[in-house]
Design goal:
The complex is a heterodimer of chains A (about 325) and B (about 220). Helices cover about 75% and strands about 5% of the residues of chain A. By secondary structure, chain A is of the alpha+beta class. The two termini of chain A are about 25 Å apart. Chain B has helices at about 35-40, 65-70, 90-100, 105-115, 130-145, 160-175, 190; strands spanning about 20-25, 50-55, 55, 75, 150-155, 180-185, 200-205, 205-210. Chain B is globular, with a radius of gyration of 17 Å. Classes of the chains: A alpha+beta (about 325), B alpha/beta (about 220). The interface of A and B includes residues 30, 232, 234, 238 and 242 of A.
Chain lengths: ~325, ~220
């Protein structure tokens, strides 16, 4: 399109619109061509394409796998979170009536919102049912379990010190053998998860940089390989945008296919973990199932793969394409 | 025109080539033939003076506009520079694809161009499957498929035997007859002097002679 014609077209609105439409069509056509051409390039060299894709896919799968693991642990620990209670194991010589009295007295305490008594007889029945030690327990002459009072503190989350003081106070009671506070190790677990979380962020950053380098290097090699083609294209009036487009789309394809590889690797690892985890969960009387990748997270994986692929190829293109001039 | 190192490749050139003309540029290696073509195509920029191509002052063509400027030019090279991993169709289609032509139009023009150089039956072959002369003709088809205003050919017959060279030159003449300005750099004096066209002889960056040789009777 000669500039002169464009100016003439601008004068009349309708033909200007036509011109805009023509340019848009051309733009769309050239994108479609680059899109398909780059896919063709990808398929033309299947071995090297797949190897590169696998490397990127594994780099993406690693942080995704860790993230999923963390997600599962969070899920498990969150179900424990509401059961923040102090468990009072009473002395074995305290009978059920005395235990019930104690539970009522404790419920009056300002720092305690409620108490729940688990009678030793009930506990035995439940334990027999769950543990699988029914026969062994039957052979015992007397119930080895103590009465237990579950104490729910009023300020469990608000004031750690108050809770600690309450535990000390309860442990000092002559009827109480020991007081266990569930939250203490849960807190430690949560802090540990924070550390792991941070670790995953650091690891993901490193692996993202690795993906950028891998994609960048792959695109750089393919720019080198197609040097003569780039020169010819520049000679026949190909703009920088026109020339870089297929390379950017190559980055897109690498990113997208790697995300799918990463997703497959995730599914495989979940399958491999599923059996052992279920067995473990059964031991804890839980029907916990491993959480897979949600649709949203899958899209995030895909999007980050594509974004890294595009960015990597863009860096390579900016660095290397400009340097090639026809001779 | 200055190359790095301070050597002037072309000096005091004063040259006018009419639109629609066909001229030969000759001279020994290093005389400045290629440089002149490179300046016209804006592969290199001149350091002094003024060059006007196709009505455009090259000094005013910004780097960003160079691709658009080059779409009015067709190129041919001694080593033909075809893309070996593409079919003849894709090779010849390149200038049209760059300019964003629609597929039907591309097909039509590529077929016409290949037909013109008698290679239409091999449209789906790869360049490696062709003889040197055929490859050169593909180069011709690619150079004219987008109907450029100017055709620049750098030693287009350098690797061809005399009969093939003659055919190629005749092909150029046919394009010239439909209005394309043809500029050919060649050191094959014997042949170009038989073409009865203007010949510009360069020597160490200066114009030695420019006239129409008519040695042939």
């Amino acid at each position: 399109m000669k500039p002169r014609n464009l100016k003439k077209n601008i004068r009349s609105n309708k033909s200007f619109k036509n011109e805009l439409k023509r340019r848009f069509d051309m733009w769309l056509l050239q994108h479609a061509q680059a899109f398909i051409f780059s896919l063709g390039q990808y398929i033309k060299t299947p071995i090297s394409s797949i190897l590169t894709t696998m490397v990127i896919g594994i780099s993406l799968a690693l942080p995704a796998n860790f993230y999923l693991l963390l997600d599962n642990i969070r899920y498990v620990s969150s179900s424990w979170d509401d059961s923040v209670q102090i468990t009072l194991f009473l002395q074995t010589d305290i009978d059920e009536i005395r235990a019930a009295e104690l539970a009522n007295i404790l419920a009056e305490n300002n720092n305690i919102s409620e108490t729940h008594l688990i009678k030793r007889a009930d506990a035995l029945v439940e334990y027999q049912k769950l543990s699988g030690f029914a026969d062994a327990l039957n052979s015992l002459n007397e119930n080895p379990l103590p009465n237990v009072i579950l104490v729910t503190p009023t300020y469990a989350d608000v004031n750690e010190a108050t809770t600690e003081a309450l535990i000390k106070e309860l442990e000092a009671l002559s009827e109480v053998d020991s007081a266990q506070y569930d939250k203490r190790w849960l807190k430690r677990l949560l802090y540990l998860l924070d550390v792991v979380n941070r670790l995953i962020v650091v690891l993901s950053t490193f692996l993202a940089i690795a993906v950028l380098l891998i994609v960048g290097n792959t695109i750089r090699l393919s720019i080198d390989n197609r040097r003569s083609e780039i020169e010819i294209t520049k000679l026949f009036g190909g703009t920088d945008r026109f020339i870089q487009r297929p390379f950017l789309y190559s980055g897109f394809w690498y990113g997208a296919s790697s995300s799918i590889i990463a997703w497959l690797l995730l599914i495989i690892s979940m399958r491999m973990l599923d059996g052992p985890v279920n067995k473990l969960a059964k031991l804890y009387n839980s029907d916990f199932q491993l959480i897979g990748l949600s649709l949203g997270n899958m899209l995030i994986l895909l999007a980050s793969g594509i974004a890294l692929g595009l960015l990597g190829s863009w860096i390579a293109v900016k660095r290397h394409l400009r340097a090639i001039e026809p001779t | 025109m200055n190359y790095p190192g301070g050597n002037e490749a072309l000096r005091n050139i004063n040259l006018h080539i009419e639109q629609g003309a066909m001229v030969y540029i000759t001279g020994r290696s290093g005389a400045g033939k290629s440089t002149l073509l490179r300046l016209i195509a804006l592969i290199d920029r001149h350091s002094r003076g003024q060059i006007i191509v196709n009505g455009q002052n090259l000094e005013r063509v910004r780097n960003r506009r160079i691709p658009i400027f080059r779409r009015h030019i067709g190129f041919m090279f001694q080593d033909h520079r075809l893309l070996n991993d593409r079919t003849l169709f894709d090779n010849v289609a390149l200038p049209l694809v760059i300019a964003g032509y629609r597929h039907q139009e591309v097909r039509k023009r590529v077929q016409a161009a290949l037909d013109k150089v008698n290679l239409l039956p091999k449209v789906n072959s790869y360049p490696m499957a062709l003889s040197g002369g055929e490859q050169q003709r593909v180069g011709v088809a690619r150079a004219v498929v987008h109907r450029p205003a100017i055709l620049l050919a750098d030693e287009p017959t350098g690797n061809l035997d005399p009969a093939l060279s003659w055919d190629t030159m005749n092909l150029f003449e046919q394009f010239n007859q439909v209005g394309v300005t043809v500029i050919i750099a060649s050191h094959d004096i014997d042949m170009i002097s038989r073409m009865s066209k203007r010949i510009i002889t360069l020597k160490t960056g200066r114009i030695l002679t420019q006239n129409v040789m008519t040695t042939e009777t």
